[in-house]
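[Meeting: bench + compute handoff]

Bench side (C.D.) handed over the final construct sequence. Compute side (W.E.) agreed to return the predicted structure before the next meeting so the bench team could plan truncations. Sequence as handed over:
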Amino acid sequence: MENPAQDGSASRLRHVVVCGAGLAGQLTAAALAKQLPKHIQVTWLKASGTDTRDFLYGSVTAPMAYDFNLSAGVTEPDLVLNSSTVFSFGTHYVGWGGARRNWVQGFHVPFSVLEGVPLYHYLLQRGLFDIEPFVVSAVAGLAGKFAHPPEDQRHPLSRAEYGYQFDPVSYGALFERQAKASVKMVSGKIVEIDRTGDKIGALRLADGQRIEADLYIDCSGPDALLSSQPHGHTGRRLGVVTSQGLAAELGPPLRTVTAEDFGWSSHTPLLDAVRHLTVYAPDCEDEALAAHGETPELCSMLDLGHRDQAWVGNCVAIGLSAGAVEPITCAPSILLQRDIERLLALVPVRTDMAVERREFNRQYVEDYRNAELFNRSLFVGSMPDEPYWRTASAEPLDERLASKIEQFESRGLHVAYDLEPFSLEDWILQHFGMGRRPDRYDRIADHVPRDTINAHLAGLRGAIDQVVKTMPPHAVYRQNLANFLRQEEAQS
């Protein structure tokens, strides 16, 4: 028999503990159970009190959720048949900023290109600053329509992408069901953490259990129960309240975010329900709660910002344990998924995990900084003279964001950085929505005959209008899909 010490097997990674009862723990446990090698044991510790602030992840995913969910064993039929999840074409911003602007931040594949020039430069050439009529996800979303984008690239709807509008409880339950089949589950309260320097040796629970592992995944939320270093934040603090009310019928495949003097409120249609979220400056709590109307189910204070390092010693912070971004976009759900995907890509082979830790932290910092750029960009320009808006717009402007805005306003150019979670299309739609007007456009557009451009724009707009007219309402489409899936289940 080989000596374990000689072949190095004594230092192989054998046991991982996931700590957290909420959405981050559910998604992480399911993903690890599905993708880790079988020789690595996964224990899921559903620590007491770590499932109460999942509403801080928001209520909308990006299109990347489809592939992530499949990798964790959760299919779209699962979502349709066994949760309140519905489809989403994006977010409708209403009355935003000092100019009270309205636009749909739709999910969209790369814009059409004519003679090597992207669509939006032709709009700029024409002095057209309303891009929505040329974005099928925006037009369909505002009309309350939905259908799956077809694979035929000639079809106007093929240029749309979609995410999901979700309630954390029913959404997370699907991942928990997947995890239960493969991981050891433990519930309890952590009363002590045995730690040597930055390395965790064991967790002690109130009932006397002692849990030892090689790697600990902290999914416990903003409290970050396992992390040894303080949470970094920008100094900006927000109040957040949420509730969920019944709905007679399913609304549009859009979340609506409405600007208010105290901050903003969102309304997310779900199956037979609507999810309400109100975000406000702490000084405006009374006004915000009065505007929220319903008795809040959950309230919390949210300190924005992220840690300098998410992986310290043998403990990795995931999701809200690592950092918190304002749920004004789908950034929180994107970052949670990317944290988990990065962890899976860098799970160490051995207990000496310095290389993996360094690379994880490098990518993590870039992810969070880039997501914060997109959120911060929503507060550049004329803003209301109220506490929430003054504080948000007064935050220092990252030089990379300043460059993005400067280059777009100068010549319609998109500046991209490594590991950005938001695409060129995301940024262009936001720039147009925020009323940013470039001084120039791509002059190659001038080499295309005006009749050709006019025909292209008119054809695109006409095709979008026509296909949206034929699409079913969101509620009808989802109901028909559910009926079809049930029939398939019955026949199988």
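W.E. noted at the follow-up: The mean pLDDT is 93. C.D. will use this when planning the next construct.
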